[in-house]
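Hi R.,

Here's the chain you asked about this morning:
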Amino acid sequence: RQVDATTYEGRSSTWSGEKKMGQEQLRILSFAGHWLYLASPGGRSVTCFTRVSVEPDTWIFENGEHDFPKRIGYQLEGKDSLKAWIAGTTDVDRPMEFRLIRKVGLAPKQ
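And here is the predicted structure, written out as tokens:
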């Protein structure tokens, strides 16, 4: 969700059937002329990635000091869906791809 003109926040949950397997808090914000991606998977400490690519409908963030992933990308695929990927040093190094769909309402019971 958009918090203000330069801040977005969200939550990602991974499910296997009715069982919640994990959750991640996310925040994207503009600070000192740079777009930052702040991720806190499973309530752990925040890891910061910096936007390195400026393409229409595609944002790529990088943190070369992080073990994995080093790159995170999002590509808009419609009003309520994104293609996301994580990779090592390059987008062909151990890539993992995800399709994200906005869901409104209650999550499945745990």
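One quick note: The chain is about 0% helix and 60% strand.

Cheers,
M.
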